[in-house]
Amino acid sequence: MAVNRGLEDVIAAESSICKVDGEKGHLIYRGYDIDDLAEHSTYEEVVYLLWFGRLPVKEELDKLHKELGANRKLPEDVVKAMRMWPKESVPMEVLRTATSMLSMYDPDANENDRAANVRKATRLTAQMPTIVAYWDCIRNGREVVDPKPNHSTAASFLYLLHSGKEPDEVAVKSLDMALILHAEHELNASTFAARVAAGTLSDMHSAVTAAIGALKGPLHGGANQEVIKMLLEIKELNNVEPYIKKMFADRKKLMGFGHRVYKVQDPRAFHLRKMSEALGKRANETKWYEMSARVEQLAKEEKKLNCNVDFYSASVYHMLGIPSDLFTPIFAISRIAGWAAHILEQLSDNRLIRPEAEYTGEINLKYVPIDKREELVSAKN
Ligand code: CMC
User: Fold this and answer.
1) Would you say the CB of residue 27 lies under 6 angstroms from ligand 1?
2) How many CB atoms lie within 10 A of CB 71?
């Protein structure tokens, strides 16, 4: 039996949600190129597209906006619980735990038909940004304000994060585009985790909680936080070259670079690079963009490495004034769209996901009573 470590090159599902062309560097959501969606669409429109398979007409989009707006508030008990959690808790832990807790307050918690799952997905898409923004307020002793029903996802997140200060248009537009770019990416690790959980006929909240846990790791969504940590450590443009060369000499991984599927540039990075440069120019602080561009150039020259979605998103969020440990949660509040689409697709034609392992351990061992094991262990050592 051939073993594909990390399930590399294994096709584990049929899906009509998203195509990642790793050779050409194309990303397609339900037939639409990500470049087109990034330029012309909105996050809410993309949510509709992913869940329902086509772009919405005006009434459909209005209805989704209304439903999201009506569901952004968190159950009071969840906010109360969050106030009791240790202030140093990592935002991804908080998001994972609060998301799991929401199922106990969800009227459809134990329903698993498509309509109930779409309602749950809508609530989660509305509530997750509120959790992340509220946590930053709670841990820093800032006021928690009620969401406004007419805000978009991006506007609501920024408004709640800044305790009721209306965000400016450029910040909303930039975050909205970042949410579009992160919304879906085929069978990545967190989406696969979501499908595995959904495939047991568990519930939407369990599947999303599993996905959040998988996204948290630095090889996946956690990479964007590591990128800004690195840039802050590098400090100045002049330090980039010695820092990166030393990293390579020490055989350390460069966060925000490399990809399992893309063999060329990640198409999402193109938009985030542009955004990083524009936000830097607007704030008269181009240093983060310039340092990033130099890191990118060195990674290409020295190791032929291309940057991925997590690299320039770091300087984008930094320029938007977002605390660095919220970067991965922002990935999650976008990717809920894709996770939910995959959970719905998995359940529409479910088959338990249960691969096999090639056993490499021992066989035919005889059970040894506990009073005889010491000899056995010392003999083995
Ligand atoms: N820095 C340095 N070397 C790298 C990197 C990197 N970021 N990525 C790959 N390589 C090298 C790696 O050392 C290996 O070289 P060798 O064959 O000489 O040992 C070769 O390229 C293949 O790498 P791999 O780690 O075996 O490839 P993979 O498909 O298992 O891993 C990856 C993909 C994304 C985990 C990896 O590229 C990585 O760790 N990148 C840094 C973390 C990161 O940016 N993650 C975000 C991924 S994209 C968005 C997301 O999912 O959130």
Assistant:
1) no
2) 18
